[in-house]
Amino acid sequence: MYSSKAQVSLSRLKCGVDSMKRYLFVALILALTFGFTFGPSFGPSFAMPGAARATLAVTGESTPAQRHEAFEIVWHAVKEKHFDATLGGLDWDKVKRDYAPKVDAAKSDNELYSLLQQMLGELHQSHFNIIPPEFIVEDDTREPAGGGIGIDIRTVDDQILITRVDPNSPGAKGGLRTGFVIMAVDNTPVKEIISRFAKSKESPAITKLRINRSILSRINGPPDTQVKLAYLDGHDKTQEATIGRERLPGKMSQRMGNFPPQYSEIEVKRLEGGIGYIRFNIFVMLLNEPIREAIRSLHDAPGLIIDIRGNPGGVGGIAPGLVGMMEEKQVSLGTMKTRNNEVRFIANPQPNAYAAPIALLIDGMSASTSEILAGGLQELKRAVVVGERSAGAALPSVFEKLPTGALFQYAIGDFRTPSGVLIEGQGVKPDVEVKLSRAALLAGRDPQLDEAVKQIMKAVPNHKSRTASH
């Protein structure tokens, strides 16, 4: 449930979004009511699994009139839609007077794009980019079919490592193990895939996230097809394996507007000492009730670990609902501000809230709603956050096609935690930072999960003592 103020703001925001007919892809984290969001946009060449890709044709140089029109579109978008009407004190009218003559004198599209990027640089903020048509990379993030080989990957020390192999999955049967280094997918070297992102203007964290998603999307694919992998085994010997993809045990979520179907899975189990463990890969309505049921089923666990490593976000409204199952009073996870609206992420307490210690696992591929959940629980001191700094991608931004064929990305909202901390560009810093290592993975260990268990075990006696005193 949300406050009436939030509900009114969201209603107005929806009307505004519906009117933006020229946007190629709207990526608002505020899908609390209309649910087509997947977190902020990371670039036209990047989409989470299944997102439609924007392909622009390069048809030669634009006319001076088209270049000037592009300039006007960019300038007016910032002037009229930036979430801060004051632009931090920047005189945007003066900026226009300074740059308009330069734009009109531009002799090529590339010169225009350079000038527009310089102009946007006057804002000194992320998510304001001009992406020329030739920079729009097809990164093979295709419509999901629920097929794969049951592995996950991460970039560790500049290598693409297998970090999870599901038991009895095609990957496990094909001999893959955690710690193996992926060298090529279907004869395409991993280095070649990575090189395609070399010109990325995004932060290193977002670029790494994009690379991992791109490689994983190549590994996964429709059931009853095959993928050929070249990898380094535990003895650093190059091996090759052709592995058949199978339909994975999760389910496909429903398409909601621009938010495409997503492969969705949840894992629930008990660890040593009866500690509860819940892992889910995305925030979608399909998983909302299963996650809540998992929390209820573990009500007697002495501690709970929620694993959102690799979770890129999703429907923002799910996070407050989950926190309401872990808090005995109304709390806020933070505030989203747009030009004309303010939305508070309110979590209302629910009956029989889980009261035992909680540890939250995050990493560099935890983004959007994952960061809202992690940042909120951390500031509320309701959970200890373990792992690696999150992606720092919590601003809603949109893409607009310019007359020249380029894409213009700009942020239209600002999210801050209850204490006013900006997550965008910074990410959530874990309370206990633990990095993965190839040595640990090859040994079959998960040092981040091990630390989360350690933190729970350390907190349990204090919790029992407080409970007994009441």
Largest sheet: 6 strands, mixed
Q: What CATH first level of the largest domain would be assigned?
A: Alpha Beta
The backbone outline, from C-alpha atoms, is globular
Q: How many extended strands?
A: 23
**Secondary structure tally, helices:** 12
Poorly predicted runs are 1-58, 137-144
Number of domains: 3
Distance, first to last CA: 29 Å
Portion in strands = 15-25%
Which structural class best describes the helix and strand composition? alpha+beta
Please give the order of strands in the largest beta sheet.
13-14-15-18-19-23
- Global Rg: 23 Å
Could you tell me the CATH topology label of the largest domain. 2-enoyl-CoA Hydratase, Chain A, domain 1
Q: What would CATH call the architecture of the largest domain? A: Alpha-Beta Complex
Mean pLDDT: 83
CATH H-level name of the largest domain... which superfamily? 2-enoyl-CoA Hydratase, Chain A, domain 1
Quaternary structure classification: single chain
Helical percentage: 25-40%
Description:
The structure is a single chain. With about 475 residues, the chain is an alpha+beta fold. It has three domains: about 5-135, Histone Acetyltransferase, Chain A; about 145-245, Pdz3 Domain; about 265-395 and about 415-470, 2-enoyl-CoA Hydratase, Chain A, domain 1. About 30% of the residues lie in helices and about 20% in strands. It has twelve helices and 23 strands. It has helices at about 5-20, 65-80, 90-105, 110-120, 170-175, 190-195, 205-220, 285-295, 320-325, 370-380, 440, 445-470; strands at about 25, 130, 145-150, 150-155, 160-165, 180-185, 190, 225-230, 240-245, 245, 250, 265, 265-270, 275-280, 305, 330-335, 340-345, 360, 385, 395-400, 405-410, 415, 430-435. The strands form seven sheets. It has a six-stranded mixed beta sheet, with helices on both faces. The protein has a four-stranded antiparallel beta sheet with strand order 1-20-21-2. A four-stranded antiparallel beta sheet has the order 7-6-8-9. Helix 3 runs antiparallel to helix 4 (about 110-120). The two termini are about 30 Å apart. Mean pLDDT is about 85; it is low at about 1-60 and about 135-145.
